[in-house]
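#struct-help
A.M.: can someone run this one for me? Single chain, 287 residues.
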Amino acid sequence: MSMLNSSIKRKFSSLEFGIREKTILSLIIFAVFFITILVAGSMIDPEKFSIDLINKNQSPSIMHIFGTDWIGRDMFFRTLKGLSISMKIGVLSSIISGIIAVILGIIGPTCGKRVDAVITWFIDLVLSVPHTLIIILISMAAGGGLKGIVLGVSLTHWTSLTRVIRAEVMQIKEAEYTKIARNFGKSSFYIAKNHILPHIIPQLLVGIVLIFPHAILHESSVTFLGFGLQSHEPAIGIILSESMKYLTSGKWWLSFFPGLSLVLVSIMVDNMGKKLGKLIDPKRAYN
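D.P.: on it. Structure tokens below:
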């Protein structure tokens, strides 16, 4: 009997997931959910949230789980479409910000103290001005719309990641293999390409993922204020801005579900970034 129990315990212990396996599994689940929202929202037929005056101002029900708005548009499909738009902007802005961060983060420490001082001063300058204000100014200068909001968000969210990459590059510069390469006459470009860039790719990936929640929240806030996407786009910021007129009349679902969906997506991607960081740096798993 004892032998049977021990064999059963061994089988169960072999099925247990370690921290790494659990992290990978949760990352896969998050990624599948993220891609599903992005693809489903992009493929929604506009007829799904078209005007239907017969069913206007309907509270959440089985037929309309997020309710309908003041002209009968289904809020579930409208919210899903808005989330997909915000997520596309977040992905584009995060990638562009990551590219800016890796370029400036490498150039600063490898091109001399003067260049590094200028880049550090520029980072401090951008951080000293509220992001929302800069995004509005850049968006208006670029003509507004999708191009303007992507440029505005991208050009304001690279600073923190640049500091992280710059600190990593400065450590790599002091490594023995980097000093040996420089003593052999290798150029700064060669060292940056072959010794620095491969080592900072993990930090870059984590940084891009962690930029995403800030990007979509800033995009939604600027659009809410009327300086982002055009009013005909079913973006989350526009949905929330329009719903403000009807909250006093008890139409709580017009802002509750879109706002909650935006917050949940932001938290989900933030958790993805943290779990990705645990895979890259296993010490984080025990913190």
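A.M.: thanks! Confidence is low (pLDDT under 50) at residues 11-16.
D.P.: also worth noting: The longest helix spans residues 188-224.
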